[in-house]
Amino acid sequence: MRVAQFLENDHSCIYFCDSRFFRGVMLKGDIEVLIDQASKEMIWEEGDTMYYKEGVTDLDYCVLKFIAISGRYYSNFKSETFVIE
Question: Which domain holds residue 47?
Answer without folding.
Answer: 2-83
